[in-house]
């Protein structure tokens, strides 16, 4: 199944099932509330009411209760390109490097124009990522059990102000600016997607491919990420874990390629679809 949130006639967001060219309404106040239901109770919330996809605007598929969890340097080639740019020896960590993107202000919807400020940064960058959506309250999850706590998967663009990232000597500020966490267009259920460890992942800028890799090339795979993140820390239904980006990001290219006003960004992940956003920088 594919799950979306869409904007209703009164301006609020409602959860639904994407079925071809239509959306079937889910009887729940929000997608987060729906995900929080016991698995056995979810199907009873699927109504017969539908709306044409062409007649509505999609929202971010779920708006979690707290920051988006992110993983840094989780593809070997991306770790290599970053080390080369800064003239550092590549040393891979023994555990995943976690950081967060602030919500709700950083979250943006699929198709939304991202309004970025030129006086805040002139080095806005892109990062295509597979994101995991947690489906149940869990803590101290074993790697062997980690896949059972996943609701589904979506695509995320970890838009980053590289100059702020350098200036603040950590990643939170440069990655948490308003509208810098677009994701979607849908959450694909774990059972429909299958193995998330063998998915093609791509990024295109104005139709030109900039990133193309496969999730099999992650350093820390999804079960390890969930096991490490949940150690001593409760994960909640609707929590989002962005699993890292492959090589080809803008700051590591020669010459560097940062986002410009009017650019169209596309993150495409096999079995999930295309997340498309236009950039407005003023």
Record the SSE blueprint.
Blueprint: E1 2-7, E2 13-19, E3 22-26, H1 31-36, H2 39-42, E4 46-52, E5 57-59, E6 68-72, H3 76-85, E7 97-101, E8 107-108, E9 113-116, E10 124-125, E11 128-134, E12 150-157, E13 160-161, H4 162-167, H5 172-175, E14 181-189, H6 190-193, E15 200-205, E16 208-214, H7 222-229, E17 240-242, E18 264-269, E19 273-281
Parallel strand pairs: 6-17, 8-14, 9-19
Antiparallel strand pairs: 1-2, 1-5, 1-14, 2-3, 3-4, 6-7, 10-13, 11-12, 11-17, 12-14, 15-16, 15-18, 18-19
* Helix and strand run: EEEHHEEEHEEEEEEEHHEHEEHEEE
Structural domain tally: 2
The first-level CATH class of the largest domain is given as: Alpha Beta
Query: Helical residue percent?
Result: 10-25%
* Superfamily (CATH H level) name of the largest domain: Fumarylacetoacetase-like, C-terminal domain
The end-to-end distance, rounded to whole angstroms, is 39 Å
Give an account of the 3D structure.
The chain is α+β, with helices and mostly antiparallel strands and 282 residues long. It has 2 domains: 58 residues, SH3 type barrels (Roll); 214 residues, Fumarylacetoacetate hydrolase, domain 2. The longest helix has 10 residues.
Entry keywords:
SH3 type barrels, five-stranded mixed sheet, 19 strands
Provide a concise account of the structure shown.
The protein is α+β, with helices and mostly antiparallel strands. The protein has helices at 31-36, 39-42, 76-85, 162-167, 172-175, 190-193, 222-229, and strands spanning 2-7, 13-19, 22-26, 46-52, 57-59, 68-72, 97-101, 107-108, 113-116, 124-125, 128-134, 150-157, 160-161, 181-189, 200-205, 208-214, 240-242, 264-269, 273-281.
């Amino acid at each position: 199944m594919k799950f979306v949130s869409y904007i209703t006639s009164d301006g609020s967001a409602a959860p639904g099932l994407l079925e071809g060219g239509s959306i079937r309404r889910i009887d729940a106040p929000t997608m987060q509330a729906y995900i929080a239901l016991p698995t056995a109770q979810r199907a009873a919330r699927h109504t017969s009411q539908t709306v044409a996809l062409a007649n509505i605007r999609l929202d971010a598929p779920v708006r979690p209760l707290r920051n988006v969890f992110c993983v840094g340097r989780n593809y070997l080639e991306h770790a290599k390109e970053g080390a080369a740019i800064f003239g550092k020896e590549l040393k891979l960590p023994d555990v995943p490097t976690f950081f967060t993107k602030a919500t709700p202000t950083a979250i943006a919807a699929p198709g939304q124009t991202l309004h970025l400020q030129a006086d805040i940064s002139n080095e806005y960058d892109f990062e295509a990522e597979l994101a995991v959506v947690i489906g149940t309250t869990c803590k101290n999850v074993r790697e062997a059990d980690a896949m059972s706590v996943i609701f589904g998967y979506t695509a995320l663009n970890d838009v980053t102000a590289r100059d702020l990232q350098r200036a603040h000597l950590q990643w939170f500020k440069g990655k948490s600016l308003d509208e810098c966490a677009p994701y979607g267009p849908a959450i694909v259920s774990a059972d429909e997607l299958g193995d998330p460890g063998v998915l093609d992942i791509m990024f295109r800028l104005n139709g030109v491919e900039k990133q193309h890799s496969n999730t099999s090339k992650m350093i820390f795979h999804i079960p390890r990420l969930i096991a490490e993140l949940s150690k001593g820390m409760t994960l909640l239904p609707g929590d989002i874990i962005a699993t890292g980006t492959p090589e080809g990001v803008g700051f590591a290219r020669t010459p560097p390629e940062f986002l410009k006003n009017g650019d169209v960004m596309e993150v495409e992940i096999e079995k999930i679809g295309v997340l498309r956003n236009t950039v407005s920088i003023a």
